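Q: I'm writing up a methods section and want to include an example of the input and output format. Could you take the sequence below and give the corresponding predicted structure tokens, formatted cleanly so I can copy it straight into the document?
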Amino acid sequence: MVNSVAAPQARGKFAEDNIFGANNRANALAKEIGIDRVINGTVGSILDEDGNLVMLDVVRDAFHALTDNEIISYAPIQGYPEYLDAVIDQCFGESRPDGFLRACATSGGSGALHHVIHNYSEIGDEILTSDWHWGAYGSMCLDNGRKLREFALLDSEGSFNFADFKAHVTAMMAKQLNTVIIMNSPANNPTGFALSIEEWRQVIDFLKNAVTGTEKNVILVPDVAYLDYSGEKQECRKFFKEFSGLPANFLVIVAYTLSKGFTMYGQRMGAMIAVTADEDVADEFVAINQYSNRATWSNSNSSAMKAMVRICSDPQKVAALDRERAAYFQLIKERADLFMAEADACGLKYLPYLSGFFITIPMTGSQAVCDLLEKEHIFLVPLGKGIRLAVCSVSKKKIKGLAAKIKKAVDAAGAQQ
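A: Here is the clean output for your methods example:
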């Protein structure tokens, strides 16, 4: 018998997941036999063609320019006002929705998701997201006494499965006061899929009709972690305009992060941004989430906020930021295009990919396939219904020939696609 002094709801929790486990094994092998002989497709950060973690030059310069006070000071609990303004501007660009917009600093995009789950759903509630999603969503729900519910992201044609989405929302609204929906688009993790503007419009119109004349509330949470690597800067943001003119009981909360767009992964800096037609709802948003900041991590990273403000307050620095992002978007696209072309050539199936850090290869028996690949020094992430490849971190040199190696392992393991 294993002794435990943890409370019943906390027993059995552990931190390491498939991603970190595979990454740790890849790093250990690379130290043993050399990094050139290992393909590590687990890392959800941008690595350059030499395998180095990318820090944008404009971000590096901003950090180096910080004063001691900017680095070490306690920040306001809600976040620096100039940071909150910069977050709203960077998130929406030219597609700022109409309504009351409010922002609250959080510990990365994860902090935004935590607060939404904690403050906008009840203990025992279900939280809706797609079947293809970042695994931490489930952990966040369970740790807060909620359950994650999944709708099918894709239909048989590889398009957004609106019918299944609608069915799940309808069922949830029948039994819950609040229906919280996490929608990771554009550049979905793990697929690279994104809703079109027309599909977003279909979702918004349905949700508006669903809450009209009822006492029920809908909280839609676009997780836009990979927004800045999902297409042309203004084009990929046009869907935000669809969040204008919503009823008071339909709140949008955007989960925004500096991790990817500013390559500040470990700084743990982000924000939650409310879009609402009701000023009372906007004021409540600030009050309850500021309170949760104080009650959870007290306040946020001063240096990360100040570095972002230094960039965003200077048009020349913003232009440099845009150029660097565009260059890395293009690099990731070239890697993805190479992989998909070779996958097509060898008959390896993959889910619809439009942009972003990851491509998913659907299959049964993903763990067995990954085990075979690891024997060939190839490390990928096994998912429940497939394997995730991080094209953000694998060089074109290592991408070349990878699809055929995966196909060989799929066939050897007897996995079905």
